[in-house]
Amino acid sequence: EMVSVLDVVTSKDLKHATVFLSVYSVNPEKKQRTFDAIKSEAKKIRFELAKVMRMRTVPEIHFVLDGSMEYGDKMDKLLKGISKGEDL
């Protein structure tokens, strides 16, 4: 599986950070397990970030599975099929 961070949005007070992840896997079950494993380690990831960040408080991390890359890939394939004259 390949994991990409697509975006990070922080609250104005910097106490919370929403991290949008894309997990690429041909197997939907593996994709969900990978995301769940990352999500379950949020506190450990925050602790590790605290070691390298120069902030008084490191934001609490909330992970969100983002499907925009898969959607974009699907649309790209559809558009390529249309340009080749293939039936949908």
Task: Give an overview of the whole structure.
With 88 residues, the protein is α+β, with helices and mostly antiparallel strands. It is 45% helix and 27% strand. It is built from three helices and three strands. It has a three-stranded mixed β-sheet with strand order 1-2-3, sandwiched between helices. A hairpin with a 5-residue loop joins strand 1 and strand 2 (16-24). The chain is elongated, with a radius of gyration of 17 Å. The mean pLDDT is 90.
Oligomeric state of the chains? single chain
Q: How many β strands by DSSP?
A: 3
Mean pLDDT: 90
Mind summarizing the main beta sheet?
3 strands, mixed
Strand content: 25-35%
How far apart are the first and last residues' alpha carbons, in Å?
29 Å
Instruction: Give the low-confidence spans.
Output: none
- Bulk shape: elongated
* Total of helices: 3
Widest β-sheet, arrangement of strands: 1-2-3
Fraction of residues in helix: 40-55%
**Rg from alpha-carbon coordinates:** 17 Å
Order of helices and strands: EEHHEH
Structural class: alpha+beta
Keywords:
single chain; 88 residues; alpha+beta; 3-stranded mixed β-sheet; 3 helices; 3 strands; 45% helix
Task: Provide a compact summary of the structure.
With 88 residues, the protein is α+β, with helices and mostly antiparallel strands.
